[in-house]
Amino acid sequence: MPPAAPASEYLVSPLNAAVPPAAPGEVPPLSLGPLPPLPVPLLLAPMAGLTSAPLRRMCAEAGAAVCVSEMILAHELVAGNARTRHLARWHADEAVKSAQLYAVDPDAARRAAQILVNECGVQHVDLNFGCPVKKVTSRGGGAALPLRPRLFRRLVAAAASGVGGAAALTVKLRIGLARRPEEMTYFLEAGQIAEEEGAAGVTLHARTAEQLYSPPADWEAIRQLAAELRIPVIGNGDVFEGADAIRMIRETGCAGVMIGRGCLGRPWLFSEAAAALSGDTARWPPPPPPNLGGVLQAALRHTADLASWEGDERSAVLQMRKLIGCYLAGFERQDLAGRLYAARSLADWEAVVGEHGADAAPFPASALRLPRLKGGGADGRPAAQRVSLPAGWLEGRDDERVPGYLTGDACEG
What we know:
alpha/beta, TIM Barrel, 2 domains, 15 helices, flavoprotein, tRNA-dHydroUridine_Synthase_C, RNA binding
């Protein structure tokens, strides 16, 4: 991790200014199936096009106990698709090899889970039922699929059969497609089915598909699900500061916390969250975030590691464009953002960071809770969508047939 800014004051928003860290023993280890208990229950969310090994390693170094991969399409993995096999890779030093699996066909789910465990050495498989993308829900996949509970049940059971007890199986859900009408909300029923069919845990992204990634996340839904299930419930949504993690556990009773967009451009968020959850008074308060120079150094490391991992420097530099705004959020340095966006090589990145890597501008408090990537509209208002479903989808709850399509358009959910 980059060095912290030379300051002693804990950087925190007014929302969390009075939130104390966990007391010793307050937050127990998280147990997920055959995985060793996780002393600090923090997970990196799967994010398509983002959570390849370089970001996973940075977040793990900061304190994430499990870092989930980019989305892997079950049918493509089974078919031996080269790009999908390329995604199904983990660095040798990743303590827990964790994969997110997207499936609509139970047979493909079972076979893909077997491949991940037996050929890739995966220890944790997370099933994606949270994707809100219209192209997916309009064909019955992603967040639309739990509206067909019999098919949902078959998929979870098939994946559980595929991992065969050799890996932990979790399911990632949203609250539903929308809050109204009532039949569009399914998280309690789906969570119960997942538990019955062998899932070791359920992650709830506390938003609807209609809501996309806009605030606020509904932590009350996490509380309801945690009270309903015997298996661990992991909360996801609106964790932008370390104190948010302990606040979520206290308010909801969830067993763990998954962080997604909040850590983009800020992998050190996991060190703050780990300090808040650890119960170790020596770790609190955490040091302030890195200054501008440290942020640039972290972004350069991310770029260099991505180039090495992908074996394609040009591709890595282009991929990093989507994260430049996340790393520089709040600094108001459009000049630096413009130069990094125009970079065509790692040498271009190194030149910019070489000039500004010692810049001591402190991390801006205004950036702590800024939406990142899909977090809201450009005018500051929440971004939302009208959810699309196949004709008759709500009338066919008992239909367990596989949707008549396969897609590569799904996302992290």
